[in-house]
């Protein structure tokens, strides 16, 4: 009478083994995906850090940062010089006519000069 239970027990055992194997494979796949994502993130962070280090080393012999600071300071200084405020007003009036692409390009150039991180920190303060 118990002989018919043996195939059922064997079938149930096979089903449990298959289910366990499937769950183990899914867990391993998730772990592999997580490890791959971690490697990609680490690679990205390393690349950004390397790029920033190279840019910092190269900026030591560059005048572009100082150039932008001087150019951006001219209207500020002239605004306090008697008679020069007319020139500043006229200059800004002319800049209002400039196309958007000019300001985007200028913003990108300045951001590249001072670093994108600096730009992001400046924007967050507003």
Could you give a quick summary of the protein structure above?
With 126 residues, this protein is mainly α. The chain has helices at 5-59, 64-78, 85-95, 100-114, 116-125. The chain has 2 domains: 16-61; 62-126, no CATH class.
Q: What is the number of E strands?
A: 0
- Count of distinct structural domains: 2
Give the count of helical stretches. 5
The level of helicity is over 70%
Specify the overall morphology: rod-shaped
Cα distance spanning the termini = 83 Å
Point out poorly predicted stretches: none
- Class computed from helices, strands and strand pairing: mainly alpha
H/E order of the elements? Answer: HHHHH
Write the layout of secondary structure elements.
Layout: H1 5-59, H2 64-78, H3 85-95, H4 100-114, H5 116-125
Features:
126 residues, 0% strand, mainly alpha
Mind explaining what this structure looks like?
By secondary structure, the protein is mostly helical. The protein has 2 domains: 16-61; 62-126, no CATH class. It is 84% helix and 0% strand. The protein is built from 5 helices and no strands. The longest helix has 55 residues, at 5-59. The model has no long low-confidence stretch (mean pLDDT 79).
């Amino acid at each position: 009478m118990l002989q018919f239970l043996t195939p059922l027990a064997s079938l149930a055992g096979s089903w449990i083994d298959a289910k366990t194997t499937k769950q183990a494979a899914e867990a391993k796949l998730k772990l592999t995906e997580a490890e791959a994502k971690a490697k990609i993130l680490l690679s990205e962070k390393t690349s950004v850090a390397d790029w920033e280090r190279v840019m910092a080393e190269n900026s030591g012999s560059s005048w572009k940062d100082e150039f932008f600071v001087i150019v951006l300071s001219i209207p500020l200084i002239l605004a306090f010089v008697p008679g020069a405020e007319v020139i500043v007003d006229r200059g800004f009036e002319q800049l209002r006519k400039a196309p958007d692409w000019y300001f985007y390009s200028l913003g990108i150039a300045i951001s590249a000069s001072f670093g994108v991180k600096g730009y992001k920190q400046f924007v967050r303060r507003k």
